[in-house]
Every structure is written in structure tokens, then in C-alpha cells.
Amino acid sequence: xxxxxxxxxxxxxxxxxxCTLADENGSEFLxxxxxxxxxxxxxxxxxxxxxxxxxxxxxxxxxxxxxIVHTTRISLLVLTDHPDPELIFLLFTASKPGERDLSxxxxxxxxERSARPAEFCHDVLVDPSGxxxxxxxxxxxxxxxxxxxxxxYESDFDASILELNLLGLAFIATSAExxxxxxxxxxxxxxxxxxxxxxxxxxxxLSPTPSQLLPPLLLPGKWFSIEDQTPHLAFVPYTESSDxxxxxxxxxxxxxxxxxxxxASSDVLExxxxxxxxxxxxxxxxxxxxxxDAKQKEKEREWRKKKPRAAITWPWSEVTAxxxxxxxxxxxxxMVYLGSHFGDSQxxxxxxxxxxxxxxxxxxxxxxxxxxxxxxxxxxxxVDDDESFNNxxxxxxxxxxxxxxxxxxxxxxxxGGRNTGSLKVVKxxxxxxxxxxxxGISNVDRIWSLREKYKDxxxxxxxxxxxxxxxxxxxxxxxxxxxxxxxxSDKGFLSSRTLAVSNIQRRIPGDxxxxxxxxxxxxxxxxxxLLLNYDSGLREYSRIGDLWTPDKFSDGNxxxxxxxxxxxxxxxxxxxxxxxHGRLVLLILDGDRxxxxxxxxxxEPPPFNCTxxxxxxxxxxxxxxxxxxVNIAVGFWMSKTVKILSLLEPxxxxxxxxxxxxxxxxxxxxxxxxxxxxxxxPPQSHPHLLVGLVDGSLATFSxxxxxxxxxxxxxxxxxxxxMHTCRIRDRSTxxxxxxxxxxxxxxxxxxxxSPLMLKDISAAAELNAVAYPASVILAIPDALVIGAVxxxxxxxxxxxxxGYNSPRRIVHSPSWGIFAVACTRPVPAQIGQAEVxxxxxxxxxxxxxxxxxxxxxxxxxxxxxxxxxxxCVGVTSYDAGEREPSRGKLVLLQANGSRAFLVVMASVSIKxxxxxxxxxxxxxxxxxxxxVIVYQVEGTxxxxxxxxxxxxxxxxxxxxxxxxxxxxxxxxxxxSISLLKLKDSHIEPIAKDYGxxxxxxxxxxxxxxxxxxxSDYNVFTFRLQVxxxxxxxxxxxxxxxxxxxxxxxxxxxxxxxISADIPMVPKQLFLTPAGQIGVIIDLTDDELSLQMTAxxxxxxxxxxxxxxxxxxxxxxxxxxxxxxxLEATSVGFLDGDFLELFLRYTSDEQSxxxxxxxxxxPERLTFAPDRLQKVLEELQCFH
Length: 1183
Hints:
Elements: E1 2-8, E2 13-20, E3 28-34, E4 37-44, E5 47-55, E6 60-65, E7 73-80, E8 86-96, E9 99-109, E10 123-126, E11 132-138, E12 141-147, E13 153-160, E14 165-172, E15 179-186, E16 192-200, E17 205-206, E18 217-219, E19 232-236, E20 249-253, E21 257-262, H1 266-283, H2 288-302, E22 310-313, E23 328-332, E24 335-338, E25 345-351, E26 382-389, E27 397-401, E28 410-415, E29 421-439, E30 444-451, E31 459-466, E32 470-475, E33 483-486, E34 500-508, E35 514-525, E36 528-535, E37 540-543, E38 565-570, E39 574-579, E40 583-590, E41 593-601, E42 614-618, E43 631-636, E44 642-646, E45 654-658, E46 666-674, E47 686-693, E48 697-704, E49 707-715, E50 722-728, E51 731-737, E52 739-747, E53 750-761, E54 763-767, E55 775-780, E56 783-803, E57 806-813, E58 818-824, E59 851-863, E60 866-877, E61 887-896, E62 901-910, E63 914-920, E64 923-928, E65 931-939, E66 944-952, E67 958-964, E68 967-972, E69 977-983, E70 986-992, E71 999-1004, E72 1009-1014, E73 1018-1026, E74 1031-1040, E75 1047-1050, E76 1057-1059, E77 1064-1071, E78 1077-1083, ...
Parallel strand pairs: 1-81
Antiparallel strand pairs: 1-78, 2-3, 3-4, 4-5, 6-7, 7-8, 8-9, 10-11, 11-12, 12-13, 14-15, 15-16, 16-17, 16-18, 19-20, 20-21, 21-22, 23-24, 24-25, 25-26, 27-28, 28-29, 29-56, 30-31, 31-32, 32-33, 34-35, 35-36, 36-37, 38-39, 39-40, 40-41, 42-43, 43-44, 44-45, 46-47, 47-48, 48-49, 49-76, 50-51, ...
């Protein structure tokens, strides 16, 4: 069983509009529609502020507002697309400041099994009176909806229309009791015709004859290109200040001209109606000749061309007006919201004068074009980009790679189009803002920050320890911007390697010891302990007494105490040291001398039967307000375990609990109590044991009531992990460093970790200096870095603009350390030359005119006994007269020199389009039209040749080709998938699915499991089943995703927890055209799979009773005809985002009981609610 969850939601903007409340402030809101979500923003002086959002179960096509005047409510209509269209009524309420609510009041199903979907016009319109709405979703039919006074649903009926190829609709505002609809369509003679029809509500139909308000007229077809852009209609109302001869009109937008056709005036309208009545009377005349003559005149009148009242020529490119391409919404004060599918959405400001932030012009004007200076323009406007919103759409291709070897993976996507082509680099982690760098110290092992006194908040000194020596740094000036090294002396800190150092309080002995603030500091080195005092006047540390060696704590047998200190930790009043050969000593400060408080010897259990060497200790109290600890944690090298000891009983250190054997030996320990996020509920206790292992992993345990539980394992890096407590913006965190760094924090009722966007960090410490408040100091190989962490868990999206170069394919060559990107470059109509974007382009391989790079593949072959990296490029030649491409070629490229200059090593002609390329051993496999062709790569490093070995031709159109070992996955875009085997340069079929899936992409999860997506917005899985007779591909999963999957990426974006109690493993990421990034998680335990399936069933039933929406019907696989009768529900996949709704009801006893009990006894869940909650909280860590 597999779980699907969204990692990054769809970011493509489908539509937008502005709404205004009739309150005393005239509150204004921007409504933004994305593929599966509606968001509402309020217009504020500082910009847009998000108010509310709602998820839509369907593919949003367009939105519209009901024009009703209300002080607290806004009614919205949302139209979803095929294959399961519906009209959703949304109500946004703003009763009080800060109280916002957005909810669905009704879902009107529009699906009809036998109807044909409309080819051009999918839209919902609302009459300016707010009484009637019209929906166009099927050919030859409109849905008329009667609305209530509040903008809600009252009734509906279907109205048949003769205009089958409908292109656009617009309401014409007339009297309050009549409704007229302007319609633009392609008639049976392939001519563009504009007309109007009246909506006859009482007769439940549209008027059979066109309205005389806008008699039928033909539009010049040469001005419009329907294939490239569907025209759009807009109503222009009559205003008092306008031309009195014009009663309003219809704008036709979307071609090389913007046309305005005026409506008939009241006098002309009456005249037209009289003519129409006379014509109808003559047509019904008993005189055959008179009737025929009337029909002929009517026909001639229909084809009489009417000139537009006004026209604006748009010579540079066709006017873009369709909402799917670029929604444009005017807000206020010359601010415009530009939503986009092909690039970042923007908040634009129209300025009264030109504004430029660059020294050179952004538009290069040829010398042949006559220009004038800006001062000679007079009054003009200039558009300035005020704010941008990241958009990954449309994602055509992508790869998952660790390009800089920093640890966490990153996704590089081919995004954008038209003039906004770009590569998007997506990373997940904490946002670090560098403030300063301290050079001169390398190979740092640990860092500590010191204050003048224990209770002070400002950091004055930094202690840095390497494996050989110790450095002390001091903030020099009053502002704390200068840092200097405090030279070593025989009166201050010891220069040898430091194990621990910290400020400490002074203990006042008594019946109940008290602790007071002090300027004392304790330094622990392998040879012993040193007590120092800070003189704020001299700004120096001075020693109090000599070095306290371990033999000074003996009871007379000094020889047995003459051991090296191997680990140490310090809290406000206690010092714990671990000596060689398994001795643990707890010390306290009595005056100016250290006193041995408790001692314990450790011995390894059988079969070791020897002294237990201690690897790490910690004595940090769980209660930060306490000056002493009641628990100590000890880690051991040989047994790879950790024990927690109790100090509650006098003179003893008894075991409380013990971990099981860990994957590696402990290197650092921390007992830490995480607190909740600031600003929420009162802080709660979340004590944990954190264990840093020598293999670069981090083990975490919850510690409740003396027991350890909820064990998780997180991969940090490849070096031994050290941990450092840091308080950032009133939030308790832990920095875990092991070559890479992760920040651990408590959020959403669970322990989370977020990688830091820096690599090669060996140590960290909290820093709160005058010049660097609320900061951290990090150690990199050759310096110290000071900065602040702004966001703990943030998705970082970096854009590399390519302008008119639209990326279509991308691969990464680890040996070259480069990305290869295949781009297409359209040549749009424009003034001047295109803007040139600077990038880190190393080399370029250009194809000939009429050719396009359709596939890329980076691979390594063995030539003359040495590995050689090559880039295989599939090039296709397109001919407009061909039904399918018949010419192409394969080109082998190699990078030479430090600049990775591309050199053509070999090229071979191919009869067809190269849709996909993969490699096995020293062979290249290319998907060419309906065939798989195998080429042998031969030669030397300087001379390479391609020799065709075999051809496998048993498909229609192969667009997917994936190799794994000697197996080959083939995806046929017109049928389904098949599994092949390459044996001795020959292809043998293994198994094939003979259904009609129309796959868009597929990937091999393992040798026997296939996952893929198809053009009907579904994802599926197949498993290879082998019996005595034959091998078959058996479908295991089928699930409606709601978007096309363009790419599956094996792996994960960031490191994740591996829980010993919850067997969930993320397997794949997927990318969609709408900008969505999703994660597929494998449930490896059968019992857990059954329980999660049962939970989704019960939760779906509960949610349907509560909202009327059926999750089962939403996720059932669909095709062009809607839901299939053969599949009543999805199989093999679970909706992770929907399952997480269970966490909302854990505090509601009644709702929780309904979900747990189900609708019958067999539906009762056997897992406890706490365990289900734990599973879902673990699921949230993956996205």
C-alpha cells in the first residue's frame, strides 16, 4: 500500500478577481484560483494579506463573483473541469475584523455521461443583476442557474443551443427582468459569428431566434487564429459620459484587432422587432412565393456584414485574454495583480512616469527603429514589478540531485514558457542569513559561548576547541563588531583541547543548597578541571587555584584515579566527567574547590565482561529553571547503548532505563526538553534523549515517566554527530552537526528536524552578542560563520531565468559536474530584440533550423578499459506536412576542458522522433516512434561510434523508456506499458498490459513493481506476477490524482526519520504541469496498511455525513467519460493529505468515536487513536 501526499501544492494561477464589501471601510479582497484551491487576500497598504483558503476537490477551471451588495458576505462561483465537472457555491464572510470564514454552501453536479465536452468554451458567467448564472461545459447545451437574493442556489435547467462550436459568452446588461446572452461561435461553414439570445426563464429555454439587441453578424476570420487563441467577449456598458449614440456594446478580444460592436439603440431595437415580426408573418404566408422570398431575404440579412463601431490594431502579437493563460485583475491605486501559468505571478504598479532600476535598457531597439526621448513623451505610464509570487508551473521535466555534495537533495525543474522560461532549484531546509565570517581557525571540533556572569544574556567570549588546542575569542568594541583572539597565558584558559566549558553558578551550602549568580567558568580538559573567574574591569579570565587532576578526588588510592578524562558535561552547578576504564564521577563546586559527589564504575555485560568505556555523557537538566540535574545519560563504545541514571537517591546513580543496541556507537548525548512554538498554547514538557552516533546518524527517544520510547533515526551526514543547544527567537532548538547540520525543534505536536542550507559544519553554538543578537556561530573547515536562522522549515525556490529559451529536458552529469538542458526558442512578434539573460552557461550545442532536441541522457561507458562520460542527444526534424516525424538523429557529445566545451563524438540518422533515451552497460536504447532501437557504443575516448544492434517494434507510440539492470520499461502513449529484457543485445518481452491507459510517464520502483501516471489524471501501479505458464503485469493500484504526472523522481528531497515503530519509507517524488511536487510513501507493514485503509474508509464516511462530499467518489479513477462502473473506489493508494484530517478530530471525543466505530461492527478500527495519531504525525514529517 502506498500513501500520496503533496510536498508543494500547485502554484499555477488559473483565474483571479477582485471583490468589495459594502462596509464602512469598503474592504477589498483579491480572490486567486489555483488548480485545487481558492485563496482570498485582503488589500492592505503594505500589500496583500492572506485571509482564508479552501481546498477544492476537482480541477478548478474558472471563478466568478455574484454581484450582490452586502456588508459582510461575498458569494463566489467555482467551476471545475472535466472529467467530473461541478459548480461550487462558496461564501466568504467577514463579520468582524480578524474573523474570516470561507466555506462551500452547495456543490451542483454537472456531469452527464452521454454529453460531449465543449471544445472551446468552459466558463461560468453571472448576469450583472446577480439573478442568473450560465455555465458552458458541454457541446450544444448551457446550464442556466437561478440565484437567490443572497447569491445562493435556487434552481437550474438545461437549455439547448444551436451554436455547437461555442467560443465565448458574455451577459448584456438590459432591464432588470430580462437577460440577454452574447455568443461567439464557429458555424457550420467555419465562419466566426457573433449573435445574442434572450434567456426565457419562464419557458426554461433560450430564445429560438436571435435577439434584435445584437443581430447576427460575421467577424473577419483573418483577424483571429482559433488554434492559437480563443477569442473572448466582454460587455461594455452604457455610461452617461459616453457617446450618446452608443448604447453599449460587445468587445471581441483575442486576435490581431480588438473590435467593438455596438448594441441596437431603443429606436433601432423597436424597428428591428417590427421587421422581425413582419418577416415571421411573411414566412408563414400561404403564398408560397411570398414565403420563399421572405426566407431568402432573411438569409441575406443574416450574412450581411456589419462593420465594428471601433477597432484597435494590435500588430505585435495576438491579444491574450483567456483566463487560463494570464489572469489580470486591477486592485486599487494603480496596482494590478498578474496571475500566471508560465511564470511567477506578480503584483504590478502602474507609475505615471518611467521607472528603471537598471543602468542599461531592458529592451534593445534596432538602429532602424525611430526613437524619442522619455521627456518628449508627455503623459505616459510605466509598469513596475512590486512583488512576485513563486510559481513552478509548468513543470515539463526535472531531476533530483545533490549537485554540490551538501547532503540534502535538490530538485531542478524545467519550468516556465513563452518569455519566462527558467530552471527552478527547489531545496527544503532552514534559512540561514550570514552576518560575519571569522577567518584563521580551522578544523574546529566544538564551540561554546560565554557570558560575563551566568545569568547575563549577552555573549562576550567564544571558546573554540580543535583536536589539538583551544582558542578564546573576545568581542572588542562596545558594538561587538570586532573579534580578537585572547592570547594564551599561564593565568587564563588552558591551551590544550577542551572537552567542556561553561559559566557556572556559585553554590551556597546548607540544609537546602542555594545558588547565586557568579562570574565563574569551568574548563574541562583531558588532564583535569580548571576553575576561572572573569574580571569585567580588566576583561580577563584568571585561574582560581591549580588544575584539578582526577587523582585529587581519590580516597587514598591515587594510582587508580590517575586516568584521562574522556568525556565531560557541565550544568549550572554540576560537573560530570567520565574517566578511562568506565568510571563516572559527579562533581560539585564547594567554595573555590571541586568536591566529588558520587562515583560509579561500569562493566560491560556478557559476552564482553570487561570495563565499559564511556563514549559520551550529559547532565543538562530537563527543567531549565533548575540549577541541577536529577538525571544523567551515559553512552558506551562497545555495547553501543545509552543508560539514563537517576540522582534522586543519595550517594547513588541508579539505572532508570537503557536503549537497545544502536546502529553505531554514541558520540554525543543530550537530555533536552523541547518547548512548543512561541505564541501558541502554554509551553508543555517534551523531554527527549538525543544520541549522536559515530556514523553520522542521530537517534531520538521520547522520555516519559522513566521510560524511553518513540525511537527514530535521522541521517545527518557522514561524520560523528555533535549536538549543541540553541535558543532561537524564544524557541528551544538543537543543532546536530555531522558534516551537515540539522535543526531539531518541536512543532505541530512532534519533534521535527530541518536541514541547514550550509555544508561541512562541524560545530555550532548559540550567540547573543550586541552586534549579533539571537544568532548562532557555526564552524566550517577554515572559518567561523556568524548568522541568524530565519525560518526553520522552508521550501527554498531559486530561479535561473532563461527568457525565451523554454527548457524541455534536463539531465545531470556527476563526473562533469554540469547540467545539460534542452530548450526550445519561439520567435514572438515584438518591437526590438529580446532581452538577454545572463546565466552560468558553459557551452551550447545548437541544432539546425526545423530541428528540436526531444530527449537527453547522460551516462558512462567503458572505452578502451577506462570509464568515459557521454551525453546522448535525441534530435527530431519536424515537417508540417507529415502526420508523424520521419527524420531524426542521435548525437553523442563529450565535454572537453574546464569550461566543459561540448564536442560531437558520433552521430547517426534515425527514421523518426527520438522520444526517450536510456542506457544499459555499453548500449544506448532509443524510443523512436513505435520502436525501441539498440545501439552499441564502441571505440576509444577520442573516437566513438554507434552501431545498431537490434530493433524491437511491437508498439504504437513509445514516449517512456526506463532501464534497471537488464530490464526495460516501455510506456506506449496510445495503449499501456510493457516490461522487456535485454539479453545479449537482443530484446525479449517479459510481460505487457493490454489495456488502454494512455500513460504519460512511468518508473520502476523495483524489479517487479511499476508506477505511472496517465492523461486522465490518474496514477497506477503494476506488479509482475510469475506463474508456471506465463508472466503477467497485474494492476495493484489505481488512483485519481487530479493532475498529469510529467516525471517520477526516485528518492526524497530531504533526510527523514526512520521510525522503529512505524514502517513508512518515502520512495518517489512526482512533478506535475500545475507546479505540484508530491511524495509517494510505501507502507511496508501489512497490518498498518489495513488499518490506514480502514481509517480512510471511516473518515470518508464521517466527512460525507458532515459536508456531503464523498472522498471515495473523488479519488475513484476516471477517464474521458467520467467514473467507470468497473471501479467503485481507488485501490493501492491512500490519500495522505486527507488522512491527516484525522488529527483535527482527536480532541473532539464525539467525532473521534464516530470515526473509530465506523458504520458497523466490522468497520471498527482496532488501532488505538493514540497510535493512529502517531502514524499520521510521522506522515507529516515526509512533506
